[in-house]
Amino acid sequence: MISRREFLKRCRDVSVAAFGVEMFGTDIAEGFMKIAASDRPLVSFIQGQSCTGCSISLTYGNETNFIDFIMKLIRLQVHPNLSFSQGESYLKILDTVSAKGGHVLVVEGSVPVKMKKACMLGEHTLYDELKKHMEKAAAVIACGSCSCFGGIPASGMNETGAVSVEKYMQMVGIKKPLVKIPGCPIQPDRFMGTVAYLIATGKLPELKDGIPVKYFGELIHNNCPRFQYFSQDIYLEDYNTDKHSCLLKKGCRGTITKADCPTRRWNGSVNVCVESNAPCVGCVNEKWPFTSDIYIEAKNVEDVPWSEFKTYSEKGGRR
Amino acid sequence: MARILSVDPISRIEGHLKIETEIDSGTVTSARVAGNMYRGFERMLLGRHPVDSARIAQRICGVCHEVHGVSSVMALEEIYRVTPPENGVVLRDMILGLHIVTDHMLHFYNLCLPDYADLSVAATYSGNDTRLKDIAGWMRGSGTAFISGAAEGDYIRDRETVYRLALNYFEALKIRSEAASGLALLGGKVPFIHALLPGGITTEITADTLMKYYHVLEKTADFVNNSFLPDALEIARRYPQYFKIGETYNTFYAHSSFKNSKGNNLFNAGVIIGGEKRKFDYAKVKELLSASFYDNSGKPDENRKGAYSWIKAPRYEGYPLEVGPVARFAVNNDAGFKSVLSRLGVSSITSSTMSRIVARAYESVILCNYLFERSEDFRLDEPTIRPVDLQAPISGQGIGFSVAARGALVHHITAEKGKVTDYKMIVPSTWNFGPAADGKAGVVEKAITGTPVRFGGEGGSIEVGRVVRSFDPCTACSVH
Predict the structure, then answer these.
(1) Which backbone phi and psi does B406 adopt, to 5 degrees?
(2) Helix (H) or strand (E) holding B232
(3) CA of B162 vs chain A CAs: smallest distance (Å)
(4) Are A94 and A189 found together in one domain?
(5) Which of B414, B466, B474 is closest to B47 using CA atoms?
(6) Is A319 inside a domain boundary?
(7) Best of A84, A245, A284, A291 to disrupt the B interface by mutation (most B CBs within 10 Å)?
């Protein structure tokens, strides 16, 4: 039993690290009471067909920063961009953690299953190697849209056969708790907050299709700072003169994409895509980067071509 | 007796890179550099509307985020025959410039510094500085493995220096995060701003936005001047031998970039071969495929005979060229950089491991100075964008000659009736990390050759690691 004073101290230590703590409330606060430094989870990162944008985004936090995350919340074992070791020693640390097990494995990027040499981990293909790092993991986190759905590497003719981490796990027969944090790149709170929840409670947050509902439950459109303009049929025609209008007719995918971007915002909460007068491109959407044109020039709302939007309109704006 | 020593994978870089060296009598006699990850951006864009590339090509790399977006949009503007208003160009400079400074900081402190300083010495701290106490406590008690297992080597281990560097390792992350908010103010969010479209920048910029950007820039410049440059110079003074290690062909290439209100560029365009400056001619650039995993049509072929890398081999009239900050200063024949070097006992701008490290720090200083001036060119109440029809069935060719932290960048788009029919990117890390072709080793392969190797061990040579990391490898970019 820890003292109240100790409890408050620990809350202070972790509250800065309990990203979006209001999202999960007491679950997290209670959980953190029980965590000693030695219990903090071992976390390894592996990058597949990725651009490192998700890892970079992790260091551009909203509520606090990546430093608290690695110093107070997790025990970071392996990260391709940060590890001091290199070559064989680097792989050995990765192997040791995976062989012992109980770690959280974070996978950034997709996995090529057709052209397997399109992504290597040391001497071997990622396809052959990834499995062993998953086998004894406590949980796997798919970090970013490539890892969650295939994303950009899986778009177009997809010559490498890029697939999501979930698909890869099915193919090689790995059954593990999997949490998907989509985004191109991820919004850092959503990743670190989910890990915080996992640590504090020892259980998965409420998921729908593997995606945390707390962060991805609601259409961007419904909380959009420009929703009023939509209600009043004030649409952007000219990017230069119209700075306070709804962007739907230019291809804004906020009506078909679920995420808390408008309320959570980005980069120290200073901005969000729509507020920079740019349409949401739906980077957390499972269809990202889509097969249709990213931007459109619709004359009327009825001309907005996506089937999900038509369903949305028919239901009178309800999800 | 020669032996083979590899570093695979090389960590603390972007992406998947393998270095294989042959070592004889303690010196690298030959080297192979292999890019080990392929996605195929040029081919996945075929058939899409050209404007989509502003968003998709932008995502080639999330470390040097924003640079590909700008280059792609410049190419699109040629096809659309639209010139962005002055404010649009100013904003792009403000975004690119600040981004490049933060990219240089990431490289120096988080990617490259552990090659020179044994930061684990910070665990010995027992003084009263709370930040250092936190770092020391964390290092001693947490079982965090990512800071362990460094290769054998001659590291800086004197406590006072390591304490300062360890503090700045973390401080750099904080400053970068703040600088990122400055970029997001102008572009929506980073990585990957969406306010960047052909014709300019969509964001409504107010006096408040500019003030906030200015505030972030001041903080960044303060760190660059008072920590980054002094720390880089300290490393240079401790390792003077690295001004002689990691030399390439001393052939350089740069684009003009960062215009000021007088119409001058901070960096000029040109190519240097054999010590002589020439005008850059894009038609003289060829990408060779003999050691790369592609067939002759450019289609990926993972089993191609004789191939060892996913990176192509660009050549200028047959010459491999080094790109990056040293190349920019060499093409400029930059007096400021020369005076920094001369204080370190180096008489001219030549390629080396340490000149690249010092060049990044010094470039960050002059970029910050530039950005203070450049942001004053912004005119409130004047347009930031000349919008175009983003679904227009455009045809034609456009080339965006732009700049990235790692060097000169080209996006070349060919479109037919609103569809991409050809997309070519010639990316800085492709120049530096491309494989051998026509009997000539690639730029980094050349730089590694001749490196004295005193240390080996399980992780491979730290000396080779230092040479490679001094180029700030970006494998995702180099292969794309």
Answers:
(1) -90, 0
(2) helix B229-238
(3) 15
(4) yes
(5) B414
(6) no
(7) A84
Distance from CA of A158 to the nearest CA of B (A): 7
Tell me the two tokens of residue A80.
């391709």
- Residue A283 to residue B9: CA distance in whole angstroms: 30
| Mutual angle of helices B86-105 and B159-187, in 10-degree steps | 160
- Summarised one tens digit per residue, pLDDT across range B133-169 is 999 999 998 778 999 999 999 999 999 999 999 999 9
B105 φ, ψ to 5°?
A: -65, -45
The H or E element containing residue B408 is: strand B407-416
**A180 with A237, same domain?**
no
Q: Which among A59, A110, A268, A44 has a CA at the least distance from the CA of B110?
A: A59
Task: Indicate whether A125 belongs to any domain.
Answer: yes
Residue of B5, B13, B16, B73 for testing the chain A interface, max A β-carbons within 10 Å: B16
Per-residue pLDDT of B356-412, as tens digits, reads: 999 999 999 999 999 999 999 999 989 999 999 999 999 999 999 999 999 999 999
Tokens at residue A234, please? 């004030």
- Tokens 């419904």 correspond to what residue? A222
- Complex ipTM: 0.97
Q: Directed axis angle between helix B207-223 and helix B353-375, to 10°?
A: 150
Cα–Cα distance measured from residue A182 to residue A186, given in angstroms and rounded to the nearest whole number: 6
Which residues on A lie below 8 Å from B150 (Cβ)? 84-85, 89
* A124 counts as catalytic: no
Domain end position, chosen among A215, A240, A261:
A215
Tokens of A56: 């970079």
Chain B residue closest in CA terms to A123: B8
Give the C-alpha separation, A163 to A149, whole Å: 7
Tokens describing residue A221: 């459109």
Q: How many domains does chain A have?
A: 2
The CA R_g of chain B, rounded to the nearest whole Å, is 22
Query: What domain range includes position A236?
Result: 220-314
Kindly state the DSSP code that residue A40 receives in the 8-state scheme: S
Q: What are the pLDDT digits (tens) for A235-286?
A: 999 999 999 999 999 999 999 999 999 999 999 999 999 999 999 999 999 9
Q: What residues contact residue B460 under an 8 Å CB cut-off, 6+ apart?
A: A86, A87, A88, B5, B6, B7, B8, B19, B151
Residue in A260, A270, A109 with CA at minimum distance from that of residue A189: A260
* Pair A240, A280: CB distance under 8 Å: no
In a domain, A171, yes or no: yes
Residues A116 and A150 in one domain: yes
Q: Which of A166, A188, A215 is the last residue of a domain?
A: A215
Distance CA(B179)–CA(B157), nearest Å, equals: 31
Q: Verify that A163 and A251 share a domain, yes or no.
A: no
Quickly state the pLDDT bin for A65 (edges 50, 70, 90): confident
CATH number at residue A235: 4.10.480.10
Concatenating the DSSP letter of every residue in A205-253 gives PPEETTEEHHHHSSBGGGG-TTHHHHHTT-B---TTT--SSB-GGGT-G
What pLDDT does residue B411 have?
98
Contact A155 B56 (CB under 8 A): yes
What's the CA gap between A242 and B202, in Å, rounded?
10
**Which of B56, B183, B300 is nearest residue A115 as measured by Cβ atoms?**
B300
A272 → closest Cβ in B119, B188, B387 = B188
Domain assignment present for A207: yes
Same domain assignment for residues A126 and A171: yes
pLDDT of residue A319: 46
Question: Does residue B83 contact residue B398 with C-beta atoms inside 8 Å?
Answer: no
What is the rounded radius of gyration, in angstroms, for the C-alpha atoms of chain A? 21
Do A56 and A200 sit in the same domain of this protein?
A: yes
Q: What is the CA angle B32-B37-B39, rounded to 5?
A: 140
DSSP letter assigned to residue B150: P
